[in-house]
Amino acid sequence: MSLGKLKKVELREGWKHEAHDFTHWLAQEDNLKLLGDEVGFDIRLIQTEAAVGNFNVDILAEEENTGRKIIIENQLEITNHDHLGKLITYSSGYDAELIIWVVKDVREEHRRAVDWLNEHTDEDVEFYLLKIELWQIEDSALAPKFEMVCRPNGWAKAVRESVGNGEFTETKLRQLKFWNALRDFAKQNNSTLRFQKGLPQYWLNMSIGTSAAHVSLSINSRENLYGVELWISDNKELYAKLFAQKDSIEQELSEKLEWMELPDKKASRIKISYGGDFNREDNWESDFNWLIHIAEKFQKVFPKYLKTTAN
């Protein structure tokens, strides 16, 4: 068997100019998806070179479903104080909660600075520091690769906050631990799912490609049930159109669903539940497998029905 040789390529061979070339490349939908896969949430472009006073942020974006503002600052060189300062200035200018710094390489003092920011800001603010690399096999097309250097530790933050103000119960802390462990498990097992940030609450949302609905995972610790559902926030007509295709949807999913129109409420839900034991951490891997398996089915089947019913 003949194997090619993998070689690392200088970034400037792929992108000559940081703003004109790299920022333009990263702002494209497919490339923001690559970045989103690494940081763990969906990124939707708002604007490139967005003004903040006399400065311009490289990319202003938002997280799908939540609308949380995202600041992305690019640097095709090693990190420096100037860009770190700009990152903080831009973030305050747009009241951003998700701050991403993409660089060629990282100085140790800047890695420590980003870790410090993650440890000392409140739990709503997250800093991500990533390296970007280009790789090639012989004369193949150049392939980008993101490498995470710093990311927030939501579990550590929540524990620290809970000690300070006593807001989180033991159940809330366990929920946060569960969602963070689920995200890690999904990534380790090459799941196609991209989760939003885990919070100390009984649900975790995921984008499904439309603002009209999203997929939600849930924990019912009292009844020992897990759930995966399509949550339609405020569109009874959309629910009715999906219900009219109930048999086809359930056949494709190979699952029987609970259809909840909820006529007295704005939202409607389409759900499937599973019996588990949230309090037994030694059984969480089995719970993770079920949640991921069903959520991946939802992500595969529902989008085409949502697209059809929107027309």
What does this structure look like?
The protein is built from 10 helices and 12 strands. The chain is of the alpha+beta class. The protein folds into 2 domains: 147 residues, Trna Endonuclease, Chain: A, domain 1 (3-Layer(aba) Sandwich), CATH 3.40.1350; 155 residues, Yope Regulator, Chain: A (2-Layer Sandwich). Helix 6 packs antiparallel against helix 7 and helix 7 crosses helix 10.
Q: Given the helix and strand composition, which structural class is it?
A: alpha+beta
Basic shape: globular
Over all CA atoms, what is the radius of gyration?
21 Å
Order of helices and strands: EHHHEEEHEHEEHHEEEHHEEH
The proportion of residues forming helix, as a percent range, comes to: 40-55%
Strand content: 25-35%
Give me the number of helical elements: 10
Which CATH class of the largest domain applies here? Answer: Alpha Beta
CATH topology name of the largest domain, in short, is: Yope Regulator, Chain: A
Q: What is the mean predicted local confidence, pLDDT?
A: 88
Main pleated sheet: 7 strands, mixed
Low-confidence stretches at least 5 residues in length (pLDDT < 50)? none
CATH-derived architecture of the largest domain: 2-Layer Sandwich
User: How far is the first residue's CA from the last residue's CA?
Assistant: 50 Å
Number of domains: 2
SS elements, strand count: 12
